[in-house]
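hiii so um. not sure if this is the right channel but i have a protein structure encoded as tokens and i wanna go backwards to a sequence. like what aa goes where. can anyone help
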């Protein structure tokens, strides 16, 4: 089967009693794939750019290990390895087709960011949380420019350097990158010392439903039982049902001014009982 075929299959097998990890792609044992020297790689690129399809095929097959090394970075995403491998191969082929021999850079240095970018794009497009197309486009450009600048500067570029390159505000970059972050499960373990693990949810503080808030609610419920029926009715209609003073007045048949006075008196009584 051609490595350029529509289907590229990767599977994990155990090699007999030796329990050795064996990876096969289209029936080819990748551990036996050749590792070409830089001089031979350049010769194959020259041949390919002159129209030699066999040279292109050989460049792809001899760099499949590069794809395998990259997808190891994404093995905790819950994605099928064969899917990631196929997407990574697309990135590899794009890198081969666009590699410029005139640039003084190793092919692997050029190809790895393209393979990573292709896999990241696949993961984001399959993210269950939908992000607007404009934000995704900005984020993709940011990641591409970041890889280019990292190669050029030999360090991780700053947000301002990326913003200057793209001619956009740094805030736009931050918003775009935040928007494409993958969701984290509340049950994702963040620390484990051999005992019970600590999950993300253990680090989340609910400021609205703490013990103090719970005690206040109990105190208010207890205080409400000590008010008169009319006071309870007015406070219930106003603050539990969200009615205006005019609506309360119409419903119980008194003036809005009377409702205002009764409400004020009821709140005063409530505060005394709560305190």
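sure thing!! here u go:
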């Amino acid at each position: 089967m051609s490595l350029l075929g529509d289907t590229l299959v990767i599977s994990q097998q155990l090699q007999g009693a030796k329990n050795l990890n064996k990876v096969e792609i289209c029936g080819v044992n990748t551990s036996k794939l050749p590792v070409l020297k830089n001089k031979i790689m350049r010769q194959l690129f020259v041949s390919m750019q002159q129209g030699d399809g066999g040279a292109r095929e050989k460049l792809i097959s001899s760099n499949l290990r590069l794809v395998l090394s990259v997808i190891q970075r994404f093995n905790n995403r819950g994605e099928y390895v064969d899917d990631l491998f196929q997407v990574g191969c697309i990135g590899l082929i794009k890198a081969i087709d666009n590699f410029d021999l005139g640039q003084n850079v190793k092919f692997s240095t050029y190809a790895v960011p393209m393979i990573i970018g292709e896999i990241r794009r696949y993961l984001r497009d399959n993210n269950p949380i939908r992000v607007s197309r404009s934000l995704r486009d900005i984020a993709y450009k940011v990641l591409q420019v970041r890889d280019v600048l990292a190669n050029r500067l030999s360090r991780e570029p700053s947000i301002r350097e990326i913003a200057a390159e793209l001619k956009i505000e740094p805030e736009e970059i931050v918003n775009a990158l935040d928007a494409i972050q993958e969701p984290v499960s509340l049950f994702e373990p963040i620390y484990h010392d051999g005992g019970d693990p600590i999950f993300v949810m253990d680090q989340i503080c609910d400021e609205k439903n703490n013990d103090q808030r719970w005690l206040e609610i109990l105190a208010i419920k207890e205080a409400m039982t000590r008010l008169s029926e009319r006071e309870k009715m007015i406070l219930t209609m106003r603050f539990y049902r969200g009615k205006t003073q005019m609506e309360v007045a119409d419903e119980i048949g008194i003036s809005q001014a009377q409702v205002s006075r009764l409400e004020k008196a009821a709140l005063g009584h409530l505060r005394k009982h709560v305190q």
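oh and Confidence is low (pLDDT under 50) at residues 1-22.
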